[in-house]
């Protein structure tokens, strides 16, 4: 049996996240430059979600650093119809959108675990 590639491992992590949390609309793993590493489901908006979430996370990290408030643990953006949560994941980040009608607690836990897994995959 051959070992899975990094890409396959990250894709598996996103699939598992979608399987355990109800209501996820989209998830992306993006590098610090805003370039898409992986997305689920694949569609025409994943590049926009990747670039915008990388910009928001970068701004949040700079703001916290400038104000000496420590490192970013997660970023939460709440809109009228959905919530986006983003977690640092080593050299990348994970961003997930969920419908506002769904409970966010399970997402916060599962996304933090997924971000740690992605960070480990990228570090190997």
Detailed description of the structure:
- The protein has one domain: Beta-Lactamase (2-Layer Sandwich), CATH 3.30.450.
- It has 124 residues and is an alpha+beta fold.
- Helix 1 runs antiparallel to helix 3.
- A hairpin with a 2-residue loop joins strand 4 and strand 5.
- A five-stranded antiparallel sheet has the order 2-1-5-4-3, with helices on both faces.
Number of helices: 3
Corresponding CATH superfamily: Dynein light chain 2a, cytoplasmic
- DSSP E strands, number: 5
Helix vs. strand class: alpha+beta
Count the domains.
Answer: 1
Strand order of the largest sheet: 2-1-5-4-3
* Biggest sheet architecture: 5 strands, antiparallel
CATH C-level category: Alpha Beta
Please state the average pLDDT score. Answer: 92
CATH topology: Beta-Lactamase
Report the span from N to C terminus. Answer: 19 Å
Provide the fold topology.
Elements: H1 6-20, E1 24-31, E2 36-40, H2 46-66, E3 75-78, E4 82-89, E5 92-99, H3 105-123
Antiparallel strand pairs: 1-2, 1-5, 3-4, 4-5
Task: Considering the chains and any ligands shown, give keywords for the structure.
124 residues, alpha+beta, five-stranded antiparallel β-sheet, 3 helices, 27% strand, Roadblock/LAMTOR2_dom
Structure at a glance:
This protein is α+β, with helices and mostly antiparallel strands. The protein has 3 helices and 5 strands, in the order αββαβββα. It has a 5-stranded antiparallel β-sheet, sandwiched between helices.
């Amino acid at each position: 049996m051959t070992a899975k590639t990094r890409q396959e491992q990250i894709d598996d992590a996103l699939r598992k996240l979608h399987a355990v949390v109800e209501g996820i609309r989209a998830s992306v793993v993006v590098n610090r430059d805003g370039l898409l590493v992986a997305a689920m489901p694949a569609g025409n908006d994943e590049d926009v979600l990747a670039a915008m979430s990388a910009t928001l996370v970068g701004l949040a990290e700079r703001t916290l650093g400038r104000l000496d408030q420590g490192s970013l643990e997660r970023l939460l953006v709440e809109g009228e119809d959905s919530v986006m949560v983003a977690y640092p994941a080593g050299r990348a980040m994970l961003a997930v959108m969920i419908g506002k009608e769904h409970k966010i607690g399970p997402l916060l836990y599962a996304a933090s675990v997924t971000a740690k897994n992605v960070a480990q995959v990228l570090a190997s």
